[in-house]
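tool=predict chain=A
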Amino acid sequence: MREITIVPLQEFEVPLEAENIRPDIFATLSLEEIRDLEVWEGNRRRYLSDLFSVAGNDGTGECLIRLDGDFSRVKRIGEGMREGEILVRGNIGMRAGSGMRGGSINIEGDAGDWLGREMRGGSISVKGNAGNYVGSRYWGERCGMRGGEIEIEGSAGAYLGDHICGGQIKVKGDAGDFPGASNRGGAITIGGDAHLPGAEMVSGTIVVKGRARVLPSYGFQETAEIEGQLLWKFVGDLVEKGKGELYVALVEDDGQLDK
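tool=predict ok
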């Protein structure tokens, strides 16, 4: 597999838009053509080589992109990618992997907001934490994530999987407010705590292995064992006549259950 390594030449004071950093775009280009790809620094059009060191194999073919350094102010990396691999040896900025349909993004640091927004396929893994709206829709769209997998070893922010319609999200740590809001068929697993999961959920599943406050519009059904852990099973959101399944290990302010 062809390998391209990209390293920032400076610390960025102004956020960058770099949707051209994609393995499937790089695969058809020579090294010099990659260096001449456009990025936007604020409202200024720049070339990739103006802001980054770009090294690797010349020629064409399936591509692995290595991003070495701090990319936390670089947005839209891997947006719409269909194949190949991106390895981030640091942090990555907003909207990484948005709309991706294939390939993989592996992040050794933290990820910004909108990670995997409306993705259709492929996989994203994060060793650190992720921001808000992971795997969610953009405002005004009907569906967020429709396919693929996102796995976060740390914690995630608010609105995890907002309007998710398919695919899987796994968070080993905590999640913020309203994970799985308006879930329409996706699967979300949270290893830690969450607040008000599944608001307006219609279908799909949410598993919270820690503590969560459950909306009163959910009906308790039974207890269930998942991966050796006993959880409370709820069905809802009944406000939406939903049939989604919500599993919670510890229920806060439990007025619904007669223990």
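The longest strand covers residues 203-213. The radius of gyration is 20 Å.
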